[in-house]
Amino acid sequence: MTCAAIGISHAITSLRLVRANAELAALRKRLELIEVKDTDHIAARRLPSAEKNVHRWAIRLPDAKSKLLYANWGSSQLSGIRDITAKSARVFELVVDSDTHEATIAIRANRNPNDPKWGTLHVEHGGGSSVIAIDPQTTSLLMGDMPSRSEAIGDSPTTRTAASPITLFATESTGDPKFAFCLWLDKRNEPDGG
Fold first, then answer.
1. Which of 19, 25, 90, 154 lies 20 to 30 Å from 133, alpha-carbon distance?
2. Which residues are paired to 108 by β-bridges?
3. Per-residue pLDDT averaged across 52-78, rounded?
4. Are 69 and 125 a contacting pair, CB within 8 Å?
5. Strand, coil or helix: what is 106?
């Protein structure tokens, strides 16, 4: 009877250990998503998303106060959109975990149910979120209605020096007129003399 109890206990403990090891491996994999050998660098990696028109990233910043999240769009090429001094650029503070220096960023484009030409852009930026109304051209671009080319951070971690910007997602129409959208991390736009 005692041997049977010990055998059952051993089997249950072994099963729990296998499950715990699987969970530990999943957690290790999550932490290794944006492993940075030099902790003075910033890093980003795309996270999976099952939803259409949702883009997610994990980011790691050595100093959360040094970077802001920027989003901008308009009738221009990407080079004109990716500008922290543009009056039309939307700026978001980043909140990162104090232990890991990581945060998750996500954007989701939706059509307005009352007028499908217009839309909304939901931006989640490490603990905060914003909802922005977007015009018909931006809605069309983000929903994939117009021919475009895109660049984005991929599954493998991308690292940059702490002073460098890092583009998470950018898309630009391939026809005329040009129209573009960009989401990127960059330095704070310090006023002159700062």
1. 154
2. 54, 122
3. 88
4. yes
5. strand
171 and 180 in contact (C-beta within 8 Å)? yes
Structure confidence by residue, pLDDT tens digits, 1-40: 787 778 888 888 888 888 877 775 566 555 544 666 777 8
Sign of the dihedral defined by the CA atoms of residues 160, 164, 105, 103, in that order:
positive
Q: Is 107 exposed, middle or buried (0-12, 13-18, 19+ CB in 10 A)?
A: buried
* 126-155 average pLDDT score: 91
Query: Do residues 182 and 71 lie in contact, with contact meaning Cβ atoms separated by under 8 Å?
Result: yes
Distance of CA 143 to the CA centre of its chain: 18
Amino acid making up residue 3: C
CA distance linking residue 103 with residue 126, whole number of Å: 5
> Other C-beta atoms within 10 Å of 169: how many?
19
Q: Tens digits of per-residue pLDDT, 145-159?
A: 999 999 999 888 888
